[in-house]
Protein backbone atom coordinates (compact mmCIF):
# COMPACT_ATOMS: atom_id res chain seq x y z
CA UNK A 1 0.00 0.00 0.00
CA UNK A 2 2.86 2.39 0.64
CA UNK A 3 3.71 2.21 -3.05
CA UNK A 4 0.21 3.44 -3.83
CA UNK A 5 0.73 6.64 -1.89
CA UNK A 6 3.99 7.58 -3.48
CA UNK A 7 2.95 6.58 -6.96
CA UNK A 8 -0.30 8.47 -6.66
CA UNK A 9 1.28 11.70 -5.48
CA UNK A 10 4.16 11.67 -7.96
CA UNK A 11 1.75 11.15 -10.83
CA UNK A 12 -1.07 13.34 -9.52
CA UNK A 13 0.97 16.49 -9.15
CA UNK A 14 1.40 16.71 -12.91
CA UNK A 15 -2.38 16.84 -13.40
CA UNK A 16 -2.77 19.47 -10.70
CA UNK A 17 -0.04 21.55 -12.26
CA UNK A 18 -1.99 21.94 -15.50
CA UNK A 19 -4.71 23.81 -13.64
CA UNK A 20 -2.21 25.63 -11.47
CA UNK A 21 -0.07 26.84 -14.36
CA UNK A 22 -2.74 27.44 -16.99
CA UNK A 23 -2.44 30.87 -18.50
CA UNK A 24 1.14 31.46 -17.30
CA UNK A 25 3.51 31.98 -20.18
CA UNK A 26 6.20 34.18 -21.55
CA UNK A 27 4.80 36.33 -24.32
CA UNK A 28 6.84 37.23 -27.38
CA UNK A 29 6.41 40.78 -28.69
CA UNK A 30 7.71 42.14 -31.93
CA UNK A 31 9.32 45.55 -31.60
CA UNK A 32 7.28 47.38 -34.16
CA UNK A 33 4.64 50.06 -34.48
CA UNK A 34 1.48 49.07 -32.64
CA UNK A 35 -1.84 50.65 -31.79
CA UNK A 36 -1.80 48.98 -28.35
CA UNK A 37 -0.78 51.25 -25.51
CA UNK A 38 1.67 50.02 -22.93
CA UNK A 39 0.98 49.84 -19.18
CA UNK A 40 1.73 53.52 -18.59
CA UNK A 41 -0.37 54.56 -21.56
CA UNK A 42 -3.32 52.58 -20.24
CA UNK A 43 -3.08 54.26 -16.84
CA UNK A 44 -2.82 57.69 -18.48
CA UNK A 45 -6.08 57.08 -20.30
CA UNK A 46 -7.91 56.55 -17.00
CA UNK A 47 -6.80 59.31 -14.62
CA UNK A 48 -10.00 59.10 -12.56
CA UNK A 49 -9.00 55.59 -11.54
CA UNK A 50 -5.20 55.49 -11.63
CA UNK A 51 -3.75 59.01 -11.40
CA UNK A 52 -2.22 58.37 -7.97
CA UNK A 53 -0.61 55.07 -8.96
CA UNK A 54 0.62 56.79 -12.11
CA UNK A 55 2.14 59.51 -9.92
CA UNK A 56 3.92 56.86 -7.85
CA UNK A 57 5.37 55.34 -11.00
CA UNK A 58 6.79 58.72 -11.97
CA UNK A 59 8.23 59.43 -8.54
CA UNK A 60 9.90 56.01 -8.27
CA UNK A 61 11.32 56.14 -11.79
CA UNK A 62 9.31 53.09 -12.80
CA UNK A 63 7.26 54.72 -15.54
CA UNK A 64 10.08 54.64 -18.09
CA UNK A 65 10.53 50.87 -18.27
CA UNK A 66 6.78 50.20 -17.97
CA UNK A 67 6.34 52.37 -21.03
CA UNK A 68 8.76 50.20 -23.03
CA UNK A 69 8.28 46.83 -24.67
CA UNK A 70 8.52 43.72 -22.54
CA UNK A 71 6.41 41.12 -20.77
CA UNK A 72 4.93 42.29 -17.48
CA UNK A 73 1.93 41.78 -15.28
CA UNK A 74 0.81 44.84 -13.35
CA UNK A 75 -1.65 44.81 -10.48
CA UNK A 76 -2.87 48.40 -10.68
CA UNK A 77 -4.52 49.79 -7.50
CA UNK A 78 -7.25 52.36 -7.92
CA UNK A 79 -7.06 55.86 -6.49
CA UNK A 80 -9.23 54.93 -3.53
CA UNK A 81 -6.90 52.07 -2.68
CA UNK A 82 -3.83 54.28 -2.94
CA UNK A 83 -5.42 56.94 -0.71
CA UNK A 84 -6.04 54.33 1.99
CA UNK A 85 -2.46 53.10 1.61
CA UNK A 86 -1.02 56.61 1.95
CA UNK A 87 -3.11 57.17 5.05
CA UNK A 88 -1.92 53.90 6.56
CA UNK A 89 1.75 54.82 6.08
CA UNK A 90 1.20 58.34 7.42
CA UNK A 91 1.74 60.23 4.16
CA UNK A 92 -0.65 63.00 3.16
CA UNK A 93 0.42 62.84 -0.50
CA UNK A 94 2.52 60.73 -2.84
CA UNK A 95 5.32 63.31 -2.62
CA UNK A 96 5.29 63.08 1.18
CA UNK A 97 5.79 59.29 1.22
CA UNK A 98 9.19 57.69 1.73
CA UNK A 99 10.71 57.01 -1.69
CA UNK A 100 12.11 53.58 -0.76
CA UNK A 101 8.73 52.53 0.64
CA UNK A 102 7.10 53.51 -2.65
CA UNK A 103 9.73 51.66 -4.70
CA UNK A 104 9.07 48.46 -2.75
CA UNK A 105 5.34 49.00 -3.14
CA UNK A 106 5.65 49.27 -6.93
CA UNK A 107 7.92 46.21 -7.21
CA UNK A 108 5.39 44.20 -5.23
CA UNK A 109 2.73 45.00 -7.85
CA UNK A 110 4.82 43.91 -10.86
CA UNK A 111 5.73 40.51 -12.28
CA UNK A 112 8.24 40.02 -15.09
CA UNK A 113 5.93 37.66 -16.93
CA UNK A 114 2.43 37.76 -18.38
CA UNK A 115 0.13 36.01 -15.91
CA UNK A 116 -3.54 35.73 -16.82
CA UNK A 117 -6.35 34.78 -14.46
CA UNK A 118 -5.96 31.21 -15.71
CA UNK A 119 -3.18 30.99 -13.11
CA UNK A 120 -5.30 32.40 -10.30
CA UNK A 121 -5.97 29.25 -8.32
CA UNK A 122 -6.07 28.78 -4.58
CA UNK A 123 -2.39 29.31 -3.89
CA UNK A 124 0.89 30.82 -4.94
CA UNK A 125 1.36 32.45 -8.31
CA UNK A 126 3.90 30.70 -10.55
CA UNK A 127 6.45 33.54 -10.57
CA UNK A 128 7.49 36.01 -7.85
CA UNK A 129 6.96 39.73 -7.88
CA UNK A 130 9.85 42.03 -8.73
CA UNK A 131 10.27 42.48 -4.97
CA UNK A 132 11.09 38.78 -4.70
CA UNK A 133 8.03 37.75 -2.72
CA UNK A 134 5.19 35.69 -4.12
CA UNK A 135 1.55 36.68 -4.36
CA UNK A 136 -1.19 34.23 -3.48
CA UNK A 137 -4.56 34.14 -5.17
CA UNK A 138 -7.99 32.83 -4.33
CA UNK A 139 -11.66 33.63 -4.75
CA UNK A 140 -13.62 35.83 -2.36
CA UNK A 141 -16.94 37.63 -2.20
CA UNK A 142 -17.47 41.38 -2.19
CA UNK A 143 -20.85 43.08 -2.52
CA UNK A 144 -22.41 39.65 -3.05
CA UNK A 145 -20.21 39.03 -6.09
CA UNK A 146 -17.35 36.58 -6.42
CA UNK A 147 -14.00 37.92 -7.52
CA UNK A 148 -10.35 36.99 -7.47
CA UNK A 149 -8.74 37.90 -4.17
CA UNK A 150 -5.03 38.77 -4.27
CA UNK A 151 -2.87 38.18 -1.20
CA UNK A 152 -6.05 38.28 0.91
CA UNK A 153 -5.71 42.06 0.57
CA UNK A 154 -7.32 43.25 -2.67
CA UNK A 155 -10.10 42.22 -5.02
CA UNK A 156 -9.66 42.21 -8.77
CA UNK A 157 -12.17 44.62 -10.29
CA UNK A 158 -11.13 44.10 -13.90
CA UNK A 159 -8.81 41.41 -15.21
CA UNK A 160 -6.69 40.41 -18.19
CA UNK A 161 -6.41 43.85 -19.77
CA UNK A 162 -4.08 43.26 -22.71
CA UNK A 163 -1.62 46.04 -23.46
CA UNK A 164 1.46 46.27 -25.63
CA UNK A 165 3.87 45.06 -22.96
CA UNK A 166 1.81 42.63 -20.92
CA UNK A 167 -1.32 42.39 -18.82
CA UNK A 168 -3.03 44.62 -16.28
CA UNK A 169 -5.29 43.48 -13.46
CA UNK A 170 -7.14 46.33 -11.76
CA UNK A 171 -7.41 45.93 -7.97
CA UNK A 172 -9.30 47.88 -5.33
CA UNK A 173 -6.53 48.11 -2.76
CA UNK A 174 -2.75 48.31 -2.47
CA UNK A 175 -1.01 44.99 -1.87
CA UNK A 176 1.25 44.92 1.20
CA UNK A 177 4.50 42.97 1.13
CA UNK A 178 5.45 40.98 4.20
CA UNK A 179 7.66 43.05 6.50
CA UNK A 180 7.90 40.75 9.51
CA UNK A 181 9.66 37.43 10.02
CA UNK A 182 7.85 34.15 10.57
CA UNK A 183 8.76 34.26 14.26
CA UNK A 184 7.40 37.73 14.83
CA UNK A 185 4.16 36.88 13.00
CA UNK A 186 3.34 33.83 15.10
CA UNK A 187 4.68 35.06 18.45
CA UNK A 188 1.86 37.53 18.97
CA UNK A 189 -0.83 34.91 18.43
CA UNK A 190 -1.93 33.10 21.60
CA UNK A 191 -3.03 29.97 19.73
CA UNK A 192 0.65 29.22 19.00
CA UNK A 193 2.14 30.00 22.43
CA UNK A 194 3.33 26.45 23.21
CA UNK A 195 4.98 26.00 19.84
CA UNK A 196 6.63 29.44 20.04
CA UNK A 197 8.06 28.56 23.45
CA UNK A 198 9.43 25.33 21.98
CA UNK A 199 11.13 27.36 19.23
CA UNK A 200 12.78 29.54 21.86
CA UNK A 201 13.86 26.75 24.20
CA UNK A 202 15.41 24.70 21.38
CA UNK A 203 17.22 27.68 19.87
CA UNK A 204 15.36 27.76 16.55
CA UNK A 205 13.49 30.98 17.25
CA UNK A 206 16.48 32.97 15.95
CA UNK A 207 16.45 30.94 12.73
CA UNK A 208 12.79 31.69 12.01
CA UNK A 209 13.30 35.31 13.05
CA UNK A 210 16.29 36.04 10.80
CA UNK A 211 15.60 38.11 7.69
CA UNK A 212 18.15 38.06 4.89
CA UNK A 213 18.44 40.50 2.02
CA UNK A 214 19.42 40.09 -1.60
CA UNK A 215 18.28 37.62 -4.23
CA UNK A 216 19.95 34.47 -2.87
CA UNK A 217 18.14 34.18 0.44
CA UNK A 218 17.86 31.04 2.51
CA UNK A 219 14.08 30.89 2.68
CA UNK A 220 12.40 28.59 5.19
CA UNK A 221 8.95 27.08 5.61
CA UNK A 222 7.48 26.49 9.06
CA UNK A 223 4.68 24.05 9.91
CA UNK A 224 3.09 25.49 13.05
CA UNK A 225 1.03 23.43 15.49
CA UNK A 226 -1.75 25.13 17.41
CA UNK A 227 -2.26 24.76 21.14
CA UNK A 228 -5.47 22.91 20.32
CA UNK A 229 -3.61 20.37 18.16
CA UNK A 230 -1.24 19.70 21.03
CA UNK A 231 -4.12 19.54 23.53
CA UNK A 232 -5.82 16.91 21.38
CA UNK A 233 -2.72 14.78 21.99
CA UNK A 234 -2.77 15.43 25.73
CA UNK A 235 -0.21 18.24 25.74
CA UNK A 236 -1.65 21.25 27.54
CA UNK A 237 1.49 23.31 28.16
CA UNK A 238 5.10 23.72 27.14
CA UNK A 239 6.10 21.90 30.33
CA UNK A 240 4.02 18.92 29.21
CA UNK A 241 5.61 19.03 25.74
CA UNK A 242 9.08 19.06 27.27
CA UNK A 243 8.23 16.25 29.66
CA UNK A 244 7.07 14.06 26.79
CA UNK A 245 9.97 14.61 24.39
CA UNK A 246 13.05 16.04 26.11
CA UNK A 247 14.82 12.86 27.13
CA UNK A 248 18.11 14.70 27.86
CA UNK A 249 16.54 17.55 29.79
CA UNK A 250 18.32 20.00 27.46
CA UNK A 251 16.05 20.98 24.54
CA UNK A 252 18.90 22.99 22.97
CA UNK A 253 20.85 19.76 22.36
CA UNK A 254 20.37 18.77 18.71
CA UNK A 255 20.18 15.13 19.78
CA UNK A 256 17.36 15.86 22.22
CA UNK A 257 13.99 14.54 21.03
CA UNK A 258 12.26 17.88 21.63
CA UNK A 259 14.92 19.57 19.52
CA UNK A 260 14.32 16.98 16.80
CA UNK A 261 10.55 17.60 17.06
CA UNK A 262 11.09 21.30 16.24
CA UNK A 263 13.62 20.52 13.48
CA UNK A 264 11.01 18.27 11.90
CA UNK A 265 8.61 21.23 11.54
CA UNK A 266 11.09 23.36 9.57
CA UNK A 267 11.48 22.81 5.82
CA UNK A 268 14.38 24.38 3.93
CA UNK A 269 13.21 26.55 1.04
CA UNK A 270 10.08 28.46 0.15
CA UNK A 271 7.17 26.01 -0.02
CA UNK A 272 3.69 27.39 -0.50
CA UNK A 273 0.84 24.89 -0.54
CA UNK A 274 1.05 24.71 -4.33
CA UNK A 275 4.68 23.64 -3.94
CA UNK A 276 3.94 21.23 -1.11
CA UNK A 277 1.58 19.08 -3.19
CA UNK A 278 3.90 18.87 -6.18
CA UNK A 279 5.95 16.06 -4.66
CA UNK A 280 5.30 13.15 -2.36
CA UNK A 281 7.72 14.18 0.38
CA UNK A 282 9.82 17.10 1.57
CA UNK A 283 13.10 17.28 3.40
CA UNK A 284 13.04 18.78 6.88
CA UNK A 285 15.74 20.39 8.96
CA UNK A 286 16.05 17.05 10.79
CA UNK A 287 18.87 15.30 8.90
CA UNK A 288 17.77 12.63 6.44
CA UNK A 289 14.12 12.84 7.48
CA UNK A 290 11.13 13.88 5.38
CA UNK A 291 7.44 14.64 5.80
CA UNK A 292 5.24 12.72 3.41
CA UNK A 293 2.46 14.55 1.57
CA UNK A 294 -0.92 13.27 0.46
CA UNK A 295 -3.73 15.17 -1.24
CA UNK A 296 -7.19 13.88 -0.38
CA UNK A 297 -9.54 15.91 -2.59
CA UNK A 298 -9.06 19.44 -1.18
CA UNK A 299 -7.25 18.32 1.96
CA UNK A 300 -3.44 18.30 2.22
CA UNK A 301 -2.24 15.72 4.71
CA UNK A 302 1.14 15.22 6.36
CA UNK A 303 2.34 11.70 7.19
CA UNK A 304 -1.03 10.16 6.38
CA UNK A 305 0.31 6.76 5.43
CA UNK A 306 -0.12 3.02 5.52
CA UNK A 307 2.92 1.07 6.70
CA UNK A 308 3.00 -2.69 7.02
CA UNK A 309 -0.75 -2.75 6.55
CA UNK A 310 -1.41 -0.29 9.39
CA UNK A 311 -3.06 3.05 8.70
CA UNK A 312 -1.38 6.03 10.36
CA UNK A 313 -3.65 9.07 10.50
CA UNK A 314 -1.93 12.24 9.40
CA UNK A 315 -2.16 15.93 10.20
CA UNK A 316 -3.83 18.47 7.94
CA UNK A 317 -2.37 21.64 6.51
CA UNK A 318 -5.31 24.02 6.76
CA UNK A 319 -5.79 25.69 3.39
CA UNK A 320 -7.72 28.75 4.69
CA UNK A 321 -4.91 29.49 7.16
CA UNK A 322 -1.93 28.51 5.03
CA UNK A 323 0.38 30.38 2.66
CA UNK A 324 1.26 33.08 5.19
CA UNK A 325 4.07 35.04 3.57
CA UNK A 326 6.82 36.43 5.78
CA UNK A 327 9.98 38.37 5.08
CA UNK A 328 12.06 35.20 5.49
CA UNK A 329 9.72 32.52 4.17
CA UNK A 330 6.21 31.16 4.54
CA UNK A 331 4.32 29.39 7.32
CA UNK A 332 1.30 27.10 7.47
CA UNK A 333 -1.04 26.17 10.29
CA UNK A 334 -1.34 22.46 11.05
CA UNK A 335 -4.28 20.67 12.57
CA UNK A 336 -3.00 17.64 14.43
CA UNK A 337 0.16 16.87 16.36
CA UNK A 338 2.93 15.12 14.43
CA UNK A 339 6.50 14.00 15.10
CA UNK A 340 9.32 12.56 13.02
CA UNK A 341 8.72 9.15 11.52
CA UNK A 342 11.71 7.10 10.57
CA UNK A 343 10.68 5.82 7.18
CA UNK A 344 11.22 2.54 5.48
CA UNK A 345 12.28 2.72 1.82
CA UNK A 346 9.36 3.59 -0.43
CA UNK A 347 8.87 3.30 -4.16
CA UNK A 348 9.18 6.41 -6.31
CA UNK A 349 7.58 6.22 -9.76
CA UNK A 350 8.98 9.31 -11.41
CA UNK A 351 7.52 10.98 -14.49
CA UNK A 352 10.60 12.78 -15.83
CA UNK A 353 8.54 15.01 -18.15
CA UNK A 354 6.71 16.85 -15.36
CA UNK A 355 9.46 19.35 -14.62
CA UNK A 356 8.82 22.97 -13.62
CA UNK A 357 10.02 24.66 -16.80
CA UNK A 358 7.62 22.79 -19.08
CA UNK A 359 4.69 23.10 -16.66
CA UNK A 360 5.13 26.88 -16.84
CA UNK A 361 4.40 26.67 -20.58
CA UNK A 362 0.73 25.63 -20.67
CA UNK A 363 0.56 26.11 -24.42
CA UNK A 364 3.05 23.20 -24.70
CA UNK A 365 2.76 21.07 -21.54
CA UNK A 366 0.58 18.10 -22.45
CA UNK A 367 -0.25 19.87 -25.70
CA UNK A 368 2.71 20.11 -28.07
CA UNK A 369 6.44 19.62 -28.52
CA UNK A 370 8.91 22.13 -27.12
CA UNK A 371 12.70 22.39 -27.53
CA UNK A 372 14.94 23.40 -24.64
CA UNK A 373 18.14 24.72 -26.19
CA UNK A 374 21.44 24.75 -24.31
CA UNK A 375 23.20 27.80 -25.75
CA UNK A 376 26.62 27.06 -24.29
CA UNK A 377 28.35 24.84 -21.77
CA UNK A 378 27.29 27.01 -18.82
CA UNK A 379 23.69 27.48 -19.92
CA UNK A 380 21.05 25.56 -17.95
CA UNK A 381 17.58 25.99 -19.47
CA UNK A 382 16.11 23.39 -17.06
CA UNK A 383 17.02 23.58 -13.39
CA UNK A 384 16.90 19.87 -12.55
CA UNK A 385 17.95 18.50 -15.95
CA UNK A 386 21.31 19.16 -17.55
CA UNK A 387 23.37 17.75 -20.41
CA UNK A 388 26.82 18.15 -21.93
CA UNK A 389 26.94 20.91 -24.52
CA UNK A 390 28.07 19.85 -27.98
CA UNK A 391 27.60 21.28 -31.44
CA UNK A 392 24.93 18.75 -32.42
CA UNK A 393 23.66 18.02 -28.91
CA UNK A 394 22.34 21.36 -27.76
CA UNK A 395 18.60 20.61 -27.62
CA UNK A 396 16.44 18.46 -25.36
CA UNK A 397 12.93 18.03 -26.72
CA UNK A 398 9.79 17.71 -24.65
CA UNK A 399 7.65 15.56 -26.97
CA UNK A 400 3.88 15.21 -26.55
CA UNK A 401 1.22 13.56 -28.69
CA UNK A 402 -1.75 11.28 -28.11
CA UNK A 403 -1.43 9.84 -31.62
CA UNK A 404 2.30 9.59 -32.34
CA UNK A 405 3.67 6.07 -32.04
CA UNK A 406 6.50 7.50 -29.94
CA UNK A 407 4.29 8.90 -27.18
CA UNK A 408 0.77 7.48 -27.48
CA UNK A 409 1.45 4.76 -24.89
CA UNK A 410 3.84 6.78 -22.72
CA UNK A 411 2.80 8.08 -19.32
CA UNK A 412 0.85 11.32 -19.90
CA UNK A 413 1.63 10.93 -23.61
CA UNK A 414 5.01 12.68 -23.28
CA UNK A 415 8.72 11.84 -23.23
CA UNK A 416 12.07 13.64 -23.13
CA UNK A 417 14.37 13.26 -26.13
CA UNK A 418 18.08 14.09 -26.26
CA UNK A 419 20.72 13.14 -28.87
CA UNK A 420 23.58 11.27 -27.19
CA UNK A 421 26.99 9.99 -28.21
CA UNK A 422 30.49 11.08 -29.17
CA UNK A 423 31.89 13.01 -30.81
CA UNK A 424 29.25 15.63 -31.69
CA UNK A 425 26.20 14.84 -29.58
CA UNK A 426 25.80 15.30 -25.84
CA UNK A 427 28.16 13.05 -23.90
CA UNK A 428 26.05 12.99 -20.75
CA UNK A 429 22.50 13.65 -19.56
CA UNK A 430 21.79 14.27 -15.88
CA UNK A 431 18.64 14.44 -13.76
CA UNK A 432 18.01 15.49 -10.16
CA UNK A 433 15.43 13.08 -8.75
CA UNK A 434 12.50 13.67 -6.41
CA UNK A 435 13.17 12.86 -2.75
CA UNK A 436 14.12 9.20 -2.27
CA UNK A 437 14.03 7.80 1.27
CA UNK A 438 17.30 6.20 2.33
CA UNK A 439 17.41 2.48 1.63
CA UNK A 440 18.28 -0.13 -0.99
CA UNK A 441 16.53 0.14 -4.35
CA UNK A 442 16.34 -1.44 -7.77
CA UNK A 443 16.50 1.25 -10.46
CA UNK A 444 14.52 0.91 -13.70
CA UNK A 445 14.83 3.16 -16.76
CA UNK A 446 11.59 3.31 -18.78
CA UNK A 447 11.75 4.39 -22.43
CA UNK A 448 10.27 4.09 -25.90
CA UNK A 449 12.76 2.45 -28.21
CA UNK A 450 13.55 3.57 -31.77
CA UNK A 451 15.77 1.21 -33.72
CA UNK A 452 18.90 2.46 -35.44
CA UNK A 453 21.54 0.38 -37.13
CA UNK A 454 23.56 -1.64 -34.62
CA UNK A 455 26.73 0.27 -35.49
CA UNK A 456 25.20 3.53 -34.31
CA UNK A 457 23.47 2.33 -31.16
CA UNK A 458 24.54 4.45 -28.21
CA UNK A 459 25.73 2.55 -25.13
CA UNK A 460 25.31 4.46 -21.87
CA UNK A 461 26.75 4.00 -18.41
CA UNK A 462 24.36 4.96 -15.60
CA UNK A 463 25.63 6.63 -12.43
CA UNK A 464 23.67 7.51 -9.31
CA UNK A 465 25.37 10.05 -7.08
CA UNK A 466 28.54 9.27 -8.98
CA UNK A 467 28.39 5.51 -8.40
CA UNK A 468 28.43 3.34 -11.54
CA UNK A 469 25.41 1.07 -11.86
CA UNK A 470 25.79 -2.59 -12.72
CA UNK A 471 24.21 -2.54 -16.18
CA UNK A 472 24.58 -0.28 -19.19
CA UNK A 473 21.56 1.10 -21.06
CA UNK A 474 20.86 1.18 -24.79
CA UNK A 475 17.75 3.18 -25.67
CA UNK A 476 17.29 1.16 -28.88
CA UNK A 477 16.94 -2.23 -27.20
CA UNK A 478 13.49 -3.81 -27.35
CA UNK A 479 11.97 -5.65 -24.43
CA UNK A 480 12.50 -9.42 -24.88
CA UNK A 481 9.64 -11.87 -25.07
CA UNK A 482 8.64 -13.99 -22.11
CA UNK A 483 6.54 -13.96 -18.97
CA UNK A 484 6.82 -11.23 -16.36
CA UNK A 485 8.94 -13.54 -14.20
CA UNK A 486 11.21 -14.52 -17.07
CA UNK A 487 11.76 -10.93 -18.07
CA UNK A 488 12.40 -9.76 -14.50
CA UNK A 489 14.99 -12.51 -14.06
CA UNK A 490 17.09 -10.97 -16.82
CA UNK A 491 16.43 -7.36 -15.86
CA UNK A 492 13.43 -6.33 -17.96
CA UNK A 493 9.78 -5.49 -17.36
CA UNK A 494 6.75 -4.01 -19.12
CA UNK A 495 5.81 -0.82 -17.29
CA UNK A 496 2.90 0.35 -19.48
CA UNK A 497 -0.63 -0.97 -19.13
CA UNK A 498 -0.84 -1.14 -22.93
CA UNK A 499 0.89 -4.17 -24.45
CA UNK A 500 3.45 -2.49 -26.70
CA UNK A 501 6.92 -4.00 -26.84
CA UNK A 502 8.33 -0.72 -28.09
CA UNK A 503 8.00 0.51 -24.49
CA UNK A 504 10.61 -1.13 -22.28
CA UNK A 505 11.86 -0.84 -18.73
CA UNK A 506 15.46 -1.86 -18.10
CA UNK A 507 16.87 -2.71 -14.69
CA UNK A 508 20.20 -0.88 -14.54
CA UNK A 509 21.14 -2.12 -11.09
CA UNK A 510 20.70 -1.87 -7.35
CA UNK A 511 21.74 1.18 -5.35
CA UNK A 512 22.10 2.04 -1.68
CA UNK A 513 20.61 5.49 -1.04
CA UNK A 514 22.52 6.59 2.04
CA UNK A 515 20.72 9.86 2.73
CA UNK A 516 17.06 10.70 2.30
CA UNK A 517 16.79 13.47 -0.26
CA UNK A 518 17.11 14.25 -3.93
CA UNK A 519 19.62 12.14 -5.81
CA UNK A 520 21.54 12.63 -9.07
CA UNK A 521 21.10 10.17 -11.95
CA UNK A 522 23.43 10.51 -14.93
CA UNK A 523 23.56 8.90 -18.38
CA UNK A 524 27.08 8.80 -19.82
CA UNK A 525 27.43 8.00 -23.52
CA UNK A 526 30.28 5.51 -24.02
CA UNK A 527 30.15 4.42 -27.66
CA UNK A 528 27.87 4.94 -30.66
CA UNK A 529 25.35 7.69 -31.31
CA UNK A 530 21.58 7.92 -31.02
CA UNK A 531 19.34 10.91 -31.74
CA UNK A 532 16.04 9.50 -30.46
CA UNK A 533 16.57 8.59 -26.81
CA UNK A 534 12.95 8.65 -25.65
CA UNK A 535 12.96 8.74 -21.83
CA UNK A 536 9.57 8.34 -20.14
CA UNK A 537 9.94 7.30 -16.47
CA UNK A 538 12.50 6.26 -13.86
CA UNK A 539 11.52 3.88 -11.04
CA UNK A 540 13.24 3.53 -7.66
CA UNK A 541 11.68 0.43 -6.07
CA UNK A 542 12.78 -1.10 -2.74
CA UNK A 543 14.53 -4.39 -3.41
CA UNK A 544 11.94 -6.42 -1.46
CA UNK A 545 8.90 -4.82 -3.13
CA UNK A 546 6.97 -5.94 -6.21
CA UNK A 547 9.02 -4.73 -9.18
CA UNK A 548 6.39 -5.41 -11.86
CA UNK A 549 3.25 -3.71 -10.55
CA UNK A 550 1.77 -1.20 -10.77
CA UNK A 551 1.81 -0.56 -14.50
CA UNK A 552 0.93 2.85 -15.91
CA UNK A 553 -1.80 3.77 -18.35
CA UNK A 554 -1.11 6.69 -20.72
CA UNK A 555 -3.64 8.82 -18.82
CA UNK A 556 -1.79 8.24 -15.53
CA UNK A 557 -4.05 5.50 -14.14
CA UNK A 558 -2.24 2.89 -12.05
CA UNK A 559 -2.98 -0.71 -13.02
CA UNK A 560 -2.36 -3.48 -10.50
CA UNK A 561 -3.32 -6.46 -12.63
Structure description:
45% of the residues are buried. This protein folds into 3 domains: 31-171, FAS1 domain; 182-335, FAS1 domain; 348-559, Galactose-binding domain-like (Jelly Rolls, Sandwich), CATH 2.60.120. The two termini are 15 Å apart. It is of the alpha+beta class. It contains 15 helices and 35 strands. Strands 10, 11, 12, 13, 14, 17, 18 and 19 form an 8-stranded mixed beta sheet that branches. Strands 20, 21, 23, 24, 26, 30, 31 and 33 form an 8-stranded antiparallel beta sheet that branches. Strands 3-2-9-8-7-6-5 form a 7-stranded mixed beta sheet. Helix 3 (47-59) crosses helix 5. A hairpin with a 2-residue loop joins strand 8 (154-163) and strand 9. Helices cover 21% and strands 31% of the residues. Mean pLDDT is 88; it is low at 1-34. It is globular.
Question: Which helices and strands appear, and what pairs or packs with what?
Answer:
Blueprint: H1 2-21, E1 24-25, H2 39-44, H3 47-59, H4 63-66, E2 72-77, H5 79-88, H6 99-107, E3 110-111, E4 114-115, E5 123-124, E6 136-142, E7 145-150, E8 154-163, E9 166-171, H7 182-187, H8 193-202, H9 205-209, E10 220-225, H10 227-232, H11 238-245, H12 257-263, E11 266-268, H13 273-276, E12 281-283, E13 290-296, E14 299-302, E15 305-307, E16 310-312, E17 315-317, E18 324-326, E19 329-335, E20 348-351, H14 356-359, E21 370-373, E22 385-387, E23 395-400, E24 414-417, E25 428-436, E26 439-448, E27 459-464, E28 467-468, E29 473-474, H15 484-489, E30 492-493, E31 503-513, E32 517-527, E33 534-542, E34 551-552, E35 558-559
Parallel strand pairs: 2-9, 10-19
Antiparallel strand pairs: 1-4, 2-3, 5-6, 6-7, 7-8, 8-9, 10-11, 12-13, 13-14, 14-17, 15-16, 17-19, 18-19, 20-33, 21-23, 22-25, 23-24, 24-33, 25-32, 26-31, 26-33, 27-28, 27-29, 27-32, 30-31, 34-35
Helix pairs in contact: 3-5
Amino acid sequence: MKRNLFAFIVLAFAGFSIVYMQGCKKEEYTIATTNDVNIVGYLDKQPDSFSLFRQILDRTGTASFLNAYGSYTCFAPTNSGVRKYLSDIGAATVDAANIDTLKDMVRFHLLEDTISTGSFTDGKMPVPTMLGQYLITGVGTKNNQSSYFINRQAFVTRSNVRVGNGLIHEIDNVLRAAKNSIASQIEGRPEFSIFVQALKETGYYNLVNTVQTGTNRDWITLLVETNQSLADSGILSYAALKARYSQTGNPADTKDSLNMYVQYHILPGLKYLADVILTNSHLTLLPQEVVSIKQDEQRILINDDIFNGVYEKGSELERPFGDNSASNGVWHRVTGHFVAKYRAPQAVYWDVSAFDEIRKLPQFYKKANYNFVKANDLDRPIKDINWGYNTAGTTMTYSYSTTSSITRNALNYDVNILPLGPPLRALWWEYVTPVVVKGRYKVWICYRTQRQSSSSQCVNNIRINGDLMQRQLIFTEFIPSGTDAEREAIGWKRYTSVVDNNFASRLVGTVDIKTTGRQTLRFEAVTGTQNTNNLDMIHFIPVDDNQILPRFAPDGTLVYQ
